[in-house]
Design brief:
The chain is of the alpha+beta class. It has a three-stranded mixed beta sheet. The protein has a domain of 179 residues. The longest helix is centred in the C-terminal third of the chain and has 41 residues. It has eight helices and ten strands. Bound molecules: 2-acetamido-2-deoxy-beta-D-glucopyranose (4 copies). GO terms for molecular function: sterol binding.
């Protein structure tokens, strides 16, 4: 009995919301309890669970997730599993019943819209604590997508989330400062790596559809050009040349000088190019077949 009361107390201690939106979809601070709102279309795994998001936030997320698919998903030269991981991340951000545990709101500020430097907007200041494991795993499923590789700010897990936090200024009216720590931080289990296989299929008049475990459709596999884990491990781009093995490397180099070094370099470059062509051929074949 005592344990149950303790658990209930613990549940209520943790289960508080940090923000919600007003009737104009502007973010406002709150400390209300999570509520069951039924089906959460953008985050199916939160359906019929106590959540901090509202119906109108669910609708906004569906819209935002379409542009997320277009930038990080298969359609945008990316990988749908990266897209799915990011959707789950933003679902927890918006809907998690533990929101107040990993998020602090510190008032409002006027700042320049990063997407339009001549526009000043009032934003809610948010500090978001993210578990480092989440940051690394989500990042590694996304880092080869063409969008992430084009934006240099997203070259590291920290930059990846900071960049997206800054983008929320225009979209969500929030400025999100991302910090990383192990406890009291945004965390969820079972992040798929980008070469994960679909877990179930459905069929309708338009054909077969592939799905992950979280209710998101996967529109295709993520090949080597969008997912590092899909590159065959036996196709290593660089192979150390065999002749120097077992010899005293420096001695040989000293004796034969730059001639060997030069021919070695040319051989390595040739090998790399050959491997690259093989790889891109393989990718093309895969895409044609798939
Ligand atoms: C919320 O926190 C509790 C206690 O730490 C945990 O058991 C639960 O899984 C968390 N819920 C979500 C959706 O992360
Ligand atoms: C932001 O600017 C508007 C218009 O100038 C002003 O009404 C508002 O109080 C400012 N907000 C803050 C937090 O400074
Ligand atoms: C940028 O903001 C200014 C001022 O609000 C506005 O007049 C202009 O149309 C905006 N530009 C774009 C590209 O949205
Ligand atoms: C994915 O699963 C299907 C059947 O469930 C199997 O035929 C296919 O080989 C798997 N692909 C990979 C890359 O594991």
């Amino acid at each position: 009995m005592k344990i149950q009361i303790f658990l209930i107390l613990l549940y209520y201690c943790y289960s508080r919301c940090a923000f919600t939106v007003d009737e104009n979809d502007k973010p406002i601070e709150t400390d209300r309890d999570p509520e069951i709102i039924g089906t959460v279309e953008a985050c199916p795994f939160f359906s019929d669970q106590p959540v901090c998001c509202t119906r109108s936030q669910d609708r906004s997320m569906i819209k935002d997730f379409k542009s997320l698919d277009a930038t990080f998903g298969n359609d945008g030269g990316g990988c749908d599993i990266c897209g799915s991981n990011m959707k789950r991340f933003w679902c927890h951000y918006t809907c998690s019943p533990n929101q107040s545990e990993f998020m602090k709101i510190s008032g409002r500020q006027n700042m320049t819209d990063p997407l339009n430097s001549s526009k000043i907007i009032e934003v809610q200041m948010v500090t978001l604590e993210v578990h480092p494991q989440i940051a690394c795993e989500v990042f590694s499923s996304c880092k080869r997508t063409s969008f992430a590789t084009q934006v240099s700010a997203m070259a590291s897990p920290g930059g990846f989330f900071t960049f997206q936090g800054e983008q929320a200024v225009g979209e969500g009216g929030q400025y999100i400062k991302v910090e990383f720590q192990e406890s009291n931080s945004l965390y969820f289990e079972d992040i798929w790596s980008c070469n994960h296989n679909y877990s179930r299929t459905t069929e309708d008049e338009t054909g077969i559809h592939y799905w992950d475990d979280f209710g998101y459709e996967l529109h295709g596999e993520c090949g080597c050009n969008t997912c590092e884990n899909s590159c065959q491990s036996d196709k290593i781009l660089y192979e150390p040349p065999g002749i120097l093995y077992g010899f005293e490397g420096t001695y040989i180099l000293f004796a034969w000088g730059w001639a060997i070094l030069l021919s070695l370099a040319i051989t390595i470059i040739r090998r790399c190019q050959q491997k690259k062509f093989e790889l891109s051929d393989l990718e093309e074949q895969k895409q044609i077949l798939g």
